[in-house]
Amino acid sequence: MRWVESARAPRQVKQIVIHSILFVFEQEHGSPVKIGYDATSGSFPSGGVSRYAYRLAEALRQARGDDFVPVALTHHALRQRTEGVLHRRCPRRILTWLWSRELYPPFERFSGPVDLVHVPLPLPVFSRSPQVVTVHDLAWLDDPRYHPGAAPDREEMQGRFDRCAGIICVSEPVARAVRERFEVSKQQIQVIGSGNHIDRPAQGESVHERPYWITISDWNPRKNLERLLRAYLQQGSSRPDLLLLGGDDRVPPRLRELIDSTSSIRCLGRVDDSVLHQALTGARALLYPSLDEGFGHPVLEAQACGTPVLVSDIEVLRDTSGGASVFVDPHEVDSIGRGMEQLIHMEEEALQAQIEAGRQNAEGRTWERCARETWAFYERVLDCHRSD
User: What's residue 28's pLDDT?
Assistant: First the structure.
C-alpha cells in the first residue's frame, strides 16, 4: 500500500482507492444522509400542522443529531425552538414569492449542503436537492373556508407537487385524495400517521372547579362548533360544563351568541401544552365532531390521558381513535346530542373498557415511531432519485 500513500502516486489512483473504500463502507453501514427541514411553521404554535412540524423535528433531531438540519426562515422571534434550529432572519413572504417562481436563493443557501429537503406542509420552497412535502388535508379544495388564510388553487398545488420527489400523507384518506385529484405518478407517496407526545395523565389540580367536557378547536367551520354547541345546549341539567380550547379572541358572531347563552360554556383560548395536558386529564370527555380532519391529534392526546372521546363517524377519525370512541354523524345536531347522552349515561364497565382501549391505541402512536418511518422514507426517496 506504500504506492497509495506516496506523494508520487497518480491522483487518479488515489481517488479510485478512496472511492472504493467509501463504497465498501456504505455497503456495510449505509450511506450517510443529511436532511434539511423547514422548521418555520413549527416555531409558532397554532394548531395541528404546527404541532406536527415541531414534534417531528424534535424526534428527528434526537434520533439523528447533526444529520438533521432544521431551519427557521423568518424575521420574527421564534416562540418555540427545535434543538439545533438555524434561525435565519429573513422576510418569509418575499422568500415565498421568489420560491413560487423557482427563483434564487435556494433552501441550501440557508441550511448548507443537504441531500434532501423536507417541507412539513405544502408551501413553495425552491431547493437544488430533492424535496419531500407533508400533506395534512385537502378539504379546502372543496371549501376554501377550511384553509387558514388564502387557499392555493389546484393548479398551484399541482406545481408544488411537481417539485417534489416524495409526498408524506398523515392518513390514508388524505393519500387517496392526493392520488385522485393530482398527477403524482412520478412521486413516492407514503402514509405516515402523526405521533402523540403525551404518555400518561397529568398530575395536579383540575383547570376547572366543576365536571366538564372539553373541545379543542379554532373557529374554522370544518370544526363544526355550531352544531356541537347547539347539541350541547339541548342537554339537560345533568350535562357537565363545556370548555373550549384553541380559538383566539375573534369569535364569529353566530358562535358568540350560542356561547353567551349559558354560563356553563367557558372559552380558555390558546393554551400551552402543560395546560392542555391538565385540561384533557380532568375532562369527562373530549368532544370532537369535525366535518373533516386530516388526522386529529387531540383524539390521541385525550386517549393518552385516559379521557373518553366523542368523534365524527368519518374514516380518518375511526382510524385515529382506533375505534375506541363514541361515534356521531357530524351533520346532525340530534346525532351529536345522542352521543352526549351516551357519554352521560354510559355504564362504568363500558366506560372503562373504552378508556383502556383508547390508552392502548395511543401508546403505539409515538413521535419516535413517526420519525423512524419518516427517515426510512427519506432514504427510499433518495434511492429512487439516485437511480433515475
Answer: 46
pLDDT at 7: 43
Give the gyration radius of the chain's Cα atoms: 24
Q: Is 169 helix (H, G, I), strand (E, B) or coil?
A: strand
Euclidean distance between CA atoms 295 and 90, whole angstroms: 31
- For the stretch 59-76, pLDDT in tens is 999 999 999 999 999 999
Side-chain half-sphere CA neighbours of 370 within 13 A: 27
**Cell digits of residue 169:** 400523507
Backbone angles phi, psi at 133, to 5 degrees: -125, 145
**CA count, 13 A, side-chain hemisphere, 116:** 28
Q: What does the alpha-carbon distance between residue 133 and residue 163 come to, in Å, rounded to a whole number?
A: 10
Tell me the C-alpha to C-alpha distance, in Å, between residue 71 and each of 95, 107, 323.
14, 9, 37
Q: Report how many helices (DSSP H) and strands (DSSP E) the chain contains, helices first.
A: 15, 13
Q: Which three cell numbers stand for residue 369?
A: 415511531
- Show the low-confidence residues of the chain (pLDDT under 70): 1-31
Give per-residue pLDDT as tens, 90-125: 999 999 999 999 999 999 999 999 999 999 998 899
Do strands 241-245 and 116-119 pair parallel, antiparallel, or not at all (unpaired)?
unpaired
Name all domains of the chain by residue range, CATH numbers in brackets: 35-195+367-387 (3.40.50.2000), 212-363 (3.40.50.2000)
Picking from 336, 330, 261, the residue whose alpha carbon sits closest to that of residue 296 is 330
CA 387: distance to chain centroid?
Answer: 30
Contact predicate 370/192, CB 8 Å = yes
